[in-house]
User: Fold TVP38/TMEM64 family membrane protein from Terrisporobacter hibernicus.
Amino acid sequence: MIGISAFQIIVAIIPGEPFEIAAGYAFGWFWGAVLCLIGTLLGQIVVFLFAKKFGMDFVEIFVSTEKIKEMNFLKDNKKLYITTFFIFLIPGTPKDVISYVAGITPIKLVPFLLVSGVARIPSVVSSTIGGCCLGLKNYTMAAAVFIVTLIVSGILFFVYKRYEKKISK
Assistant:
């Protein structure tokens, strides 16, 4: 599971949530989350360091120039960490792409891993809890977990969009 999670980050076009659900199903919510988070951090280290070393030319292999330009919020050094935290906190946002782009910003590896790692925990845990519930054939609880996650994601996305609009002025 660690290798799959790392690979999923490196490839950047594969969403992580199905793997997190599978990890919860196979290993239980706690160990599934631990394995996914370790793999995710390893994948982020690889992506981040390659982006730092090889720069924009490397990043553009995985992320279009247009997409990079849309991420102008990462150019504000004062708000770089809080913006990164919000993006990684919201389930369903393109976190893997952000890992590439973060490598070409002034952000340092360890703070990036701390901010993104902590922010990922709620999303990964909710996915692995849902997967664990599916494994236990507790479909009602699994549905409830996924619905609550969807609602919370929507609220966080709305809050983030308001924040993004505010900082872009």
Summary: The chain has a mean pLDDT of 89. Residues 2-167 form one domain.
